[in-house]
Amino acid sequence: MRIIRFMEGDARVLAALTDENQVYPLPDSDFMTLVRRADREGCSVLEAVNRQIAGAVPSDKDFGSLALAAPIDAPEVWAAGVTYLRSKEARNYEATRGRLDASTFYDKVYDAERPELFMKSTAARTVGPGGDVCLRSDSSWQVPEPELALVLDGGGGIVGYTIGNDMSCRDIEGENPLYLPQAKIWRQSCSIGPAIRLADAMSDPYKLTITCRIFRDGEKVVEESASTGQLKRKLDELVAYLAKDNSLFDGTVLLTGTCIVPPNQFTLAPGDRIEIDITGIGTLTNTAVSA
């Protein structure tokens, strides 16, 4: 079972989306309101949704025709870095300017007890499915970073899974690691969606296939796939470090790191269409535009 939001006039409608792509509008105003209702009823979110739609008639709207919105307005989006070997390799390439002639602190953080965590975005800087992601005007080497994203409650519980695109400037981060915030955070530098897979409906988050495709002028120029089974760290480990001595807000999203990095010679251009697919969640599509 997945949860989506779609536009109906000026209103955003929360709905349940079955694995058969049947759409059932829900009475809750947003995803975390649904989570809190389930808690009051003493049941799981999946049980609350199943009770709500039992005997109901699905919407006559076709899922493919809906104007989807971000499934949640995340007050904060955090991200984990260097959690996959592929990410470590890419960061080392940037830090050594392609020479790969020395170990770097990316090698250290990959094997360290403490993971890398950083603030990625806020609700105002995050777009949903179909939205535009911006390219920085002072970077010439920019890529999407496809990631499995965790939706958290205020207590650090994982209540759902979605897709995140952590737009990144490889040249800015490679020039100096202290430039990381500038390489990661700017207007419309993050997207999430298209749906939230309920935690109770996720069989195994370590057995998901992530695929990224990039199209330019209608032609596919990048396609790569990888598995969340390659994740070096456990999801609850990342959440525990994020929550330690920190204030978590209902609906916080945590991106868990990328296992896909486009070829080193590739950079995004205005008009590129980015598609990120994760098993059982859906496909997040965005278009790159100049900032």
* Average pLDDT figure: 95
Biggest sheet features: 11 strands, mixed
Structural class: alpha+beta
End-to-end separation in angstroms reads 36 Å
Would you mind describing this structure in some detail?
The chain is α+β, with helices and mostly antiparallel strands and 291 residues long. It folds into two domains: 2-69; 76-290, Fumarylacetoacetate hydrolase, domain 2. It is built from seven helices and 18 strands. The protein has helices at 31-40, 45-53, 85-95, 105-111, 170-175, 180-184, 235-243; strands at residues 2-8, 11-17, 23-25, 68-69, 76-81, 116-122, 126-127, 132-135, 142-143, 146-152, 158-166, 168-169, 190-198, 209-216, 219-227, 252-258, 273-278, 282-290. The strands form three sheets. Strands 1, 2, 3, 4, 5, 6, 7, 10, 11, 13 and 16 form an eleven-stranded mixed sheet that branches. A hairpin with a 2-residue loop joins strand 14 and strand 15 (219-227). Helix 1 (31-40) crosses helix 2. The longest helix has 11 residues, at 85-95.
